[in-house]
Design brief:
The protein is 35% helix and 19% strand. With 413 residues, it is of the alpha/beta class.
Length: 413
């Protein structure tokens, strides 16, 4: 029995949030029930079968026979995701039973930016606002117990004056990912940049004319590509991201080969939503263009062995009926904290009416989201105001531009 383990399978992650668990695959999100969540909270700490039995027996206050029977039932019901294994569980379980920690948190440190990208959903410019450092620290202190990975973004997060101070302070406790234009990297010491878990850099074309025209800064391509090469040479984990407005096979192939030549191991293709600057530049990605990209990558998966190529899938959906307005479970699994202090359930839903609260104005809002049913009340208010008010048509039109996952709850509370 000591060599027998129980582990997760067929999924990317499992996150405990309150009394349920969200299991994420490449294309869908599944919910596991309260009993399974109690079981996973045990499995999170030790996956050896004997220890799991002992700890679960104590947790559920059952005798040995009842415990083994209940574990068998849990494994049968959840056989798609949980099963016996010859080794310890390899898929990390995050979150905490009874507390609504989000799985992913993006913190926009500033809306200042070097570039003027055509597709920028925030209309970032060279001048803007930034989140006070003491507020960032306080947020991290409240979230670090179970939200072990935080994405720093902007604007250009490397314009934030305390960026290295922040990472030096917390990199041993939290995995910091950062999304950047890649323009300013050489201003920082390589040993400081190595403290980031990964650095995601936007490169908007395989040639200088394509990239520079899209970001609105002449000479940017040369600087950014040199910086990507520099990071790879220093063994820093890099993801190069590229948005697609129109699918052009030759350009996609050239882009992948360019990244390969730098030593990049991860590429992320994204789509452009018709919001912010993209709405006026008319550069949103049509569904047909997105499908062409997806089909091309599936057909050529073997050709690009050795490099991970992903699509930033904003249309990832919750499998089953949802009790929430955000069917992608934004607000539960994901938070986006703007430089203004507003906390939103989604990176792209940045209207004041959709805010879950402002951390600068109300220092208790994070505690309310974590430890009370505050999100349920928020969800009810949004469902009423968006879909049952005289502004219903306006909100439907606005939200449909962002994502089809924002709609009327299918389960009444």
């Amino acid at each position: 029995m000591s060599n027998k383990f129980i582990g997760l399978k067929n999924c990317r992650s499992a996150h405990i949030c309150g009394n349920i668990t969200y299991v994420s695959t490449d294309f869908s999100i599944y919910i596991l029930d309260e009993i399974t969540t109690k079981f996973l909270s045990v499995l999170k700490n030790d996956s050896s079968y004997g220890t799991v039995i002992d700890c679960f027996q104590s947790k559920m206050n059952l005798d040995l026979t009842e415990t083994i029977k209940l574990i068998q039932e849990i494994l049968e019901v959840n056989e798609a995701f949980i099963g016996f294994s010859k080794c310890a569980n390899q898929i990390k379980i995050t979150g905490k039973e009874g507390v609504a920690f989000p799985q992913n948190v993006q913190i926009s440190l500033t809306n200042k930016c070097i570039h003027l990208c055509k597709h920028c959903f925030k209309n970032c410019k060279k001048h803007g606002n930034e989140l006070p450092y003491e507020k960032v620290v306080d947020l991290i202190e409240q979230l670090k117990e179970e939200c072990q990975q935080i994405e720093l973004t902007g604007g250009e997060p490397f314009l934030y004056p305390y960026i290295i101070k922040l990472v030096n302070e917390y990199h041993k406790e939290i995995l910091f990912n950062i999304t950047t234009s890649g323009y300013l990297l050489k201003k920082f010491k390589i040993e400081d940049l190595k403290k980031f878990n990964l650095i995601q850099i936007s490169l908007l074309g395989s040639t200088a004319s394509l990239h520079d025209n899209f970001v609105g800064v002449k000479g940017s391509y040369e600087i950014v590509t040199n910086n990507i090469r520099w990071l790879c040479e220093n063994d820093i984990e890099v993801i190069v991201s590229r948005t697609i407005t129109v699918f052009e096979q030759k350009e996609v192939e050239n882009f992948i080969e360019l990244c390969r030549s730098f030593g990049v191991k991860h590429i992320l293709f994204g789509i452009v939503l018709d919001i912010g600057r993209a709405e006026y530049a008319h550069c949103g990605t049509g569904q047909e263009e997105q499908k062409k990209l997806e089909d091309f990558l599936k057909e050529n998966s073997k050709k690009y062995n050795g490099i991970e190529i992903m699509i930033d899938n904003e249309n990832k959906y919750f499998k089953g009926k949802s009790r929430d307005v955000f069917h992608c479970v934004g607000g539960r699994l994901r938070w986006y904290i703007e430089e203004s202090g507003e906390i939103f359930p989604c990176t792209y839903c940045l209207r004041k009416e959709l805010s879950m609260g402002n951390y600068i104005e109300d220092k208790m809002v994070v505690s309310k989201l974590l430890y009370t049913n505050f999100y349920d009340k928020y969800n009810g208010r949004i469902a009423t105001e968006l879909f049952k008010s005289n502004k219903k048509q306006f909100w439907n039109d606005y939200l449909n531009k962002i994502c089809h996952n924002i709609r009327v709850p299918e389960i009444e509370k």
